[in-house]
Amino acid sequence: MEWTPDPRELADLELLLNGAFEPLTGFLGHDDLHAVHERGTLADGTPWPAPVTLHIGADVEPGDEVTLLDPEGLPLAVLTVTAHEPDGLTAGPLKALSTPEHGPFARLRRTPAQVSEELGGRPALAVTMRGPLDDLGEVVATAKELDATILLLPLAYGEAGPAVVRAALRAKEQLPPGTLVVPVPLAPRAEPELDLELREHVATAYGATEHLAGPDPVHIPGPPHRRGLVVFFTGLSGSGKSTIARGLRDALLELGSRTVTYLDGDVVRHLLSKGLTFSKQDRDLNIRRIGFVAAEAARHGGLAICAPIAPYAATREEVREMVESVGADFLLVHVATPLAECERRDRKGLYAKARAGLIPEFTGISDPYEEPDDADLTIDTTHISIEAAVSRVLDTLRSGGWVR
User: Fold this and answer.
1) What Gene3D superfamilies does the record tag this protein with (predicted)?
2) 226, 86, 13: which is closest to 3 by C-alpha?
């Protein structure tokens, strides 16, 4: 089978394949993971600072081979499964198939072996960076003391990755000739101590004699009215979510203070997701596509409005994470009109067909709707007008500072 890891897993995969995570030869299983958490070692006692894991949300068994793909579908490696836990945690050794090409600044990437060859045995001062360097004087002085080549390792992960690489390239212009810049896709770890240990391990793998950790940047978010926002409506068919979403779009366009992108579930089905069925797998894919487009609009400060049914909580959470990963905000609106009222309206006759067995896997009838417990706003349109519902959403946007 084929599987595309999430961005953090892809970053770890690249470092597993290029040797930066030596002695690891694959993703960690339950025993190694437990040992890392408890003792900072692998199960066999080998020191290792932080989890490096892969979760596969499909049925695989020990002995199966899984081809791991990049976001564009290029095969990167084959994983031979040695263990698969109920939560999806999957362990096993890896065999490289190709060099990763996804992501920015691919031309600057080198493996630890290539960097060691370029250093030619000279000592190296490695500086890992997650933001601009405050004090180049310290770097120059330390390199001079060690008689070492300076190796800048911008930790290019996520939305901030390109900016970190650009900061390294600017710093190189002010550093001694021969300074090297090599982007490393090391995802940050939640605990600063573990993150630093992993940075030191990677720096050593790239040939560092000495390691300096650059300061982490201080992120000051802009005001809400300048940040990207996704307003994500969810609810049963006939609940009124599309009508409210259209009303919100029109109200925002009249205000003229935000760039608005509107993604209605039915329209997306005819265009972006044409050909998908209503199976759970295809429904999830449809929502992910909507989430991706919405996140791209919000990435650049736009306001995206989405109105799919989105019946599954896990997929809604994926969209939230997708949006927040690009630095935008996410507002979940549950249009909680009861099934009986939705069925009474039934303008398209869909519920009647579903009751008659003519539409399989119909949400609320033959397929579940998982009501959100994390909604930022809940609206029941049974006894209020659409105009009132739109006003409630608009008031929420104003009180949150997203609209002025």
Assistant:
1) P-loop containing nucleotide triphosphate hydrolases, Sulfate adenylyltransferase
2) 13
CA separation for the pair 327, 103 (Å, rounded): 18
Say how far apart CA 323 and CA 326 lie, in whole Å. 6
CB 311 within 8 A of CB 235: no
Find where tokens 């996704």 sit: 230
**What is the rounded CA–CA span in Å between residue 98 and residue 109?**
14
Name the amino acid, one letter, at 111.
Answer: T
Average confidence (pLDDT) over 70-77:
90
The domain locations on the chain are: 2-96, 106-213, 224-400
Q: How far is it, in rounded angstroms, from Cα 403 to Cα 329?
A: 13
Q: Is the pLDDT of residue 373 over 90?
A: yes
- Which residue reads 């105009």 in tokens? 387
- Asked if residue 242 belongs to a known ligand binding site, the reply is yes
CA-to-CA distance for 240 and 233, rounded, in angstroms? 10
Q: Is domain 106-213 annotated with CATH 3.40.50.620?
A: yes
User: What dotted CATH number matches 224-400?
Assistant: 3.40.50.300
> What's the token pair of residue 201?
């391990």
Instruction: Report the alpha-carbon distance of residue 165 to residue 184 in Å, rounded.
Output: 9
Establish whether 238 is an annotated binding residue: yes
What digits encode the pLDDT tens for the residues 207-240?
999 999 998 776 666 788 889 999 999 999 999 9
Q: Name the pTM for this structure.
A: 0.67
Determine the Cα–Cα distance for residues 9 and 15; give it in Å rounded to an integer. Answer: 10
φ/ψ of 236, rounded to 5, equals: -65, 160
Is residue 269's pLDDT more than 80? no
Q: Which helix (H) or strand (E) holds 195?
A: helix 192-205
Q: Establish whether domains 106-213 and 224-400 are of one fold.
A: yes
Place of tokens 């950790």: 213
| Preceding peptide of 5 cis, ω within 30° | no
Class of domain 2-96: alpha beta
pLDDT for 99: 84
Residue 101 has pLDDT above 90, yes or no: no
Is 236 labelled a binding residue? yes
256 annotated ligand binder? no
260: closest CA among 283, 288, 229? 229
Tell me the pairing of strands 65-69 and 2-3: parallel
